Amino acid sequence: MWKTDLRVELSEQERQELERLDRSLVAPHRAVVRARTILLLAEGMSVSAVARQVGRGRRIVRKWGARFQRKRLGGLVDLQRSGRPARFSPRSSCAP
Predict the structure, then answer these.
(1) CA distance 91 to 94
(2) 52 or 92, which is more confident?
(3) CA distances to 16, 28, 31, 92, 95 from 73, in Å
(4) How far apart are CA 51 and CA 71, in angstroms?
(5) Angle at CA 71, nearest 5°, toward 26 and 28?
(6) CA 80 to mean position of chain CA atoms
(7) Looking only at Cα atoms, what is the longest distance across the chain?
(8) Do the Cβ atoms of 21 and 27 come closer than 8 Å?
(9) First-to-last CA distance in the chain?
(10) Whole-angstrom Cα distance, residue 94 to residue 50?
């Protein structure tokens, strides 16, 4: 198996949290994919192999791996986006 320059080492607590997310049936899909990505990188899989397994591009796998290295579990959360706020709330009955 090819090794990558992206090295991810997990503490036991981080591994448990990522495995919990990976098994979750109620967590958002993006959180599950990100958790699985980090777990596979921590196993030493190449970026290309992880990308194939999780169904994402190599650039995306590198992005989440690098963010995890910098910010640990907090790096897997979506960043604030600019733009116009939602016009309708999710609970609104008048959404288009």
Answers:
(1) 9
(2) 52
(3) 11, 15, 11, 32, 34
(4) 21
(5) 15
(6) 16
(7) 53
(8) yes
(9) 49
(10) 41
Mean pLDDT of the chain: 84
Question: What is the total residue count of the chain?
Answer: 96
pLDDT tens per residue, range 38-89: 999 998 888 999 999 999 999 999 999 989 888 888 878 877 778 877 677 6
Pure H helices in 3-92: 12-23, 29-42, 47-54, 58-71
> Both tokens of residue 61?
């796998």
Residue 89 has a pLDDT of 63
Residue 58 identity (one-letter amino acid): R
Q: How far is C-alpha 33 from the geometric centre of its chain's CA atoms?
A: 5
Q: Rounded to two decimals, what is the model's pTM? A: 0.77
